[in-house]
Amino acid sequence: MNTGPSVDEALTDMMGAVFGAHREKLGGETIVERGSDLWRQLTELGLLRLTGAVEHGGSGAGWYEAAELLKAAVRCGIRIPLAEHDLLACWLLDASGLGADGAARTVCVLDMRGVATQVPWASVAERVVVVWRADGRYRVADVAAETLTITRGTNLIGEPRDTVAAELSGLHGTPIGPTLISQLRLKSGLVRAIQVCAALDDILRLCIEHVSSRTQFGRPLSKFQSVQHLVSDVAAEAALARAATEAALAAGVRGEWSSPTLEFLVAAARSCAGHAASVVVRNAHQVHGAIGTTREHRLHEFTRAALAWRSEFGSMRYWDDVVTDTAMRASAGGLWSLITE
Fold first, then answer.
1. pLDDT for 302-333, tens place per residue?
2. How many CB atoms lie under 10 A from the CB of residue 16?
3. What is the pLDDT of residue 118?
4. For residue 3, what pLDDT is reported?
């Protein structure tokens, strides 16, 4: 997934090598717990706080580098809260003037009852950055996980997706403006689009490898027109999702996450990625046949991940509605500039 300006090749190679070595060591996909060997290695290499400011203990990289890190983790089947910790929780603390130390974090937005559902990685985090609304204003606090009531849950691929409950009367937070809340929502949505696109690209890679190496009736599968159609649809859908996601990422970085068209672009990326996943997953399993349903084959690592991630930080219907509503508000006169800006 080419997400914009080229990222240093040595850095991307190092990312892939770190995750690849961990996968080889364990023999398959894995959920990474804090305190593990990989967690410590990523911390030492400056990859867990990749985009943090150098003066605050980060590595001073940007979203393009972070996207490559997410892609490397997806390809190796390493499940770890890279985005939740660095791009969301620690970013929000820095943006709020609170600052973040080296503790493992995730982030959630509490409802009026003080509850948030489907919170990624809360049960394995040391601290949870909680956002809630009180007295007409949003507030943020960096809370120790043990002071919250956390009910464990998982998504389709076994990643923690937990319910977090807090006593709002006991929270003391820092007021933040609606701009940061909007940016948190859009950044969260874009993170999942990047991950879905990475999974779709790896599904396409597996499809091409399979049809090129397997034969049927004395011919490679790639020579059969019906198979070609299936794979070409996978490639087209993956490319569409990738292009929409790259456009949203570029707009976010270029406009410092304040572009007037960013919400539309992120929503379009999520919509394209979500709908692409349906076609790609269906076609990929048809292409692979029975072998693609086995635990030993890697296809399920990516198909299940794409289906799980496309419904997080906003469902497909939610992002479809955002696309529709934004286009309707733009009207005929503003729609073209909305799409092409």
1. 999 999 999 999 999 999 999 999 999 887 77
2. 17
3. 97
4. 46
Q: Are the CB atoms for 110 and 168 separated by under 8 Å?
A: yes
CB of 280 within 8 A of CB of 309? no
Neighbours of 160 (CB within 10 A): 22
What CA–CA distance (Å, rounded) separates 184 from 182?
Answer: 5
Q: Using alpha carbons only, give the angle 324, 328, 333 rounded to the nearest 5 degrees.
A: 135
Angle among Cα 332, 336, 340 to the nearest 5 degrees reads 165
Reference 244, options 304, 190, 283, 282; nearest CA is 190
| Count of positions (residues) in the chain | 341
- In Å, how far are 43, 44, 45 from 40, measured between CA atoms? 5, 6, 9
Helix (H) or strand (E) holding 132: strand 127-134
Tokens of 334: 């503003």
Calculate the CA dihedral of residues 337, 339, 340, 341 and round it to 10 degrees. 70
Q: Which residues have C-beta within 8 Å of that of residue 327, sequence separation ≥ 6?
A: 264, 335, 338
The pTM is what? 0.95
Which pLDDT band holds residue 100 (cuts at 50, 70, 90)? confident
DSSP secondary structure letter of residue 134: E
Helix (H, G, I), strand (E, B) or coil at 7: coil
Q: Which two tokens mark 85?
A: 């910790």
